[in-house]
Amino acid sequence: MPSLTKLKSVRSRLGGNNFLLTVTISMFVLMYLVGMVVYEQQNFGTMQTFFNMLMDNAGLIIAASGMTLVLITGGIDISVGSVVGVVCMMLADLMENKGMGAYPAIFLVLVFGIIFGAVQGWLISYLKLQPFIVTLAGLFFARGLTAMISVEQIAITNEHFLGMAHKSIKVFFGAVVNKRGIKLYPFVHPNVIIALVAMLSVWYICRYTKFGRSLFAIGGNEQSALLMGLNVKRIKLLTYTLNGFLAALAGVAFCLNTVSGFVEQARGFEMEAIASAVIGGTLLTGGVGTVIGTFFGVLIKATIETFIRCDGTLSSWWNKIVLSALLCFFIVLQSVFTYIKNKKNQSI
Amino acid sequence: MNNTVKTKFQDILRKPLFLPLFALGLMLIINVIITPSFFKISIQNGVLYGYLIDIINRGSELCIMAVGMTLVVASSRGADISVGAVAAVAGAVCVRLLGSSYEAYAVPMIVAILLCLLAGALCGAFNGFLVANLKIQPMVATLILFTAGRGMAQLISAREIGDKMVPGQILYVRMESFKNIGGYLPHIVVPTPVFIAVAFVLITWLILKKTALGLYIQSVGINPKAVRLVGINSTLIIFLTYVFCSFASGLAGLIAASRIYSSDANNIGLYMELDAILAVALGGNSLAGGKFSLAGSVIGAITIQALTTSLYAMGVTADQLPVYKAIVVVLIVAIQSEELKRWRVQWKVRQQKLKEAA
């Protein structure tokens, strides 16, 4: 019976860990199609709208990729939003008040991110403190640090930085012909390139390196990973350090969008990053997750944002509430999913 | 002789409330050095006035929240990080119900207060359902309200501008008697929040002591599975602690709203989640659940308020405050950590060996 084996193989491919990813991707496609029909007047279907979604969320793509790494090990990092905020403020302060060039400033904030991540990672892996407490303290520390640098908003006027922020890179497909008959190519800003490169590197690390496989082993069962001979502490430390670096990079990408630094910047960003990863099928209990899913999680969040913008009558708070509801839905889904899985294992 | 003094001293050191009290004492001593008039209390305009009064007055919300948080930590081995946002929601509900314009007070004050507390308890029921019934890690489950809560509070704080209801406004109350909750009752010199906090802590303490609930909560925190086998409904206990914690946050939100006489969705309960967790940790409670001490948490909350007040006195602004608190949290949690204890024991053993060798 070939049809049955085929059905079985489809089932096994859909079942298990791919199930959540499948739900996510179909949800995104569905939402996007609905958007194309409902908001056709607002050009929802054009390529440029899609690229705008990427441009607006370049920072989130990077931060959520880093978050995926941390979640796979079974940890969590809720300090990324504050790190993004402090990085923006540091960039603005270094360039505007200290007169530093754009590249040295970016280099410095990336180093800051690495150190910040390493300290958190050390506390979590070597002192065995709860990741949540440590990163909650990190959240408040970085937010306070932002206020210490300046409570006023600083706008960035550095030419190099502005050049980088506003440079348009043409994409040679999906062109639209406007009323005058001129072909308009869609464009992206450089931060999208940074984001995609960061995301693909994380994907590569997860899939093809020893370090990446160790992450899954630790998330699956830390005890057995230890017995297997993995240096769990060092790998965890490295993960949080890498995440600190990615959070700082996300801050740079975010800053390229906002070109300013102020105290309240990127508040709630950590939730968006966690939500994107969770919606993309990363299990909060660790051991399961892919960056591709996270990418679709970000796209779903961006689609909701675009809906709200196209609608025009809803206030921006709805954005956070809808995203939280979605996060809640996926967490509950995961919980049910894990419950069924455990029950199956028990029956065997 | 010398030995008995030494053992007595060690006994005192081992008392569970020693460290919290020591921290509080240290804080007070530092304060006296900075401001010599620290312990001075006088009566001005018919009310008590002074640093100490200020600390217990401003610290009442934190006290209430810390008591709720203690139970959550004890039962579920994780903290509720949505307390600040829940306080904002409760404050917004109360002020919105009291009326958002000059014309009419929509409901009597008592109804507004009850519904505001109910709103807090409902938030807690949501958190509790996720944690207790769906077995989601406490901090992840409460993360949802941590971010969504302020958005909800903004939506609730809507006011009629023109013909449309515009959300995200700062609503003002136009009812003089509402001020009493966060201010002073007529002819009484002690601020009302202190009474509310004392009553709240006492009632909680009595409920936990006179019924077996306190014991249940401790045992659920130590081993939920064993408790389940004994026949106690651990799910219900955890659920109840979350409802209680959010109810406490609602009460704190009510006091905060009354204090500023308006609803400010962005600032009510801001940074309170860290303070509440810090109070629990400072009070000598382990963040890994199990045994707890309400008195410790209350002392912890007062210590934090003393720290906040003295940092303000030193010219630190409200925005910068989290930096210092974050450092304190990490230090306390690090000192409590098992790993550090293990290192210390190892170090002692090594020293002993060196001594023997020499």
Describe the protein's architecture and organization.
The complex is a heterodimer of chains A (348) and B (358). Chain A is mainly alpha-helical. Chain A contains 15 helices and 6 strands. Chain A has a two-stranded antiparallel sheet. In chain A, strands 2-5 form a two-stranded antiparallel ribbon. A two-stranded antiparallel sheet of chain A has the order 3-4. In chain A, α4 packs across α10. The longest helix of chain A has 31 residues. In chain B, the strands form 3 sheets. A two-stranded antiparallel sheet of chain B has the order 1-2. A two-stranded antiparallel ribbon of chain B has the order 3-4. In chain B, strands 5-6 form a two-stranded antiparallel sheet. Chain B has 16 helices and 6 strands. With 358 residues, chain B is mainly alpha-helical. The mean pLDDT of chain B is 87. Classes of the chains: A mainly alpha (348), B mainly alpha (358). The interface between A and B is large, with 45 and 47 residues.
Quick recap:
The complex is a heterodimer of chains A (348) and B (358). By secondary structure, chain A is mostly helical. Chain A has 15 helices and six strands.
- Give the overall shape of chain B: globular
Multimeric state: heterodimer
Q: Could you give the order of the helices and strands of chain B?
A: HHEEHHHHHEEEHHHHHEHHHH
**Discrete helix count of chain A:** 15
Listing every helix as H and every strand as E from the N terminus to the C terminus, the arrangement of chain A reads: HHHHHHHEHEEEEHHHHEHHH
Percent helix range of chain B = 55-70%
Distance between the first and last residues' Cα of chain A? 26 Å
Low-confidence spans of chain B: none
Number of strands of chain A: 6
Q: State the shape of chain A.
A: globular
Largest sheet of chain A: 2 strands, antiparallel
The count of helical stretches of chain B stands at 16
Point out poorly predicted stretches of chain A: none
Counting helices, strands and paired strands, the structural category of chain A is mainly alpha
As a whole number of angstroms, the C-alpha radius of gyration of chain A is: 21 Å
Helix content class of chain A: over 70%
Largest interface: A-B, 45 and 47 residues
Structural category of chain B is mainly alpha
**Which percent range describes the beta-strand content of chain B?**
under 5%
Describe the sheet with the most strands of chain B.
2 strands, antiparallel
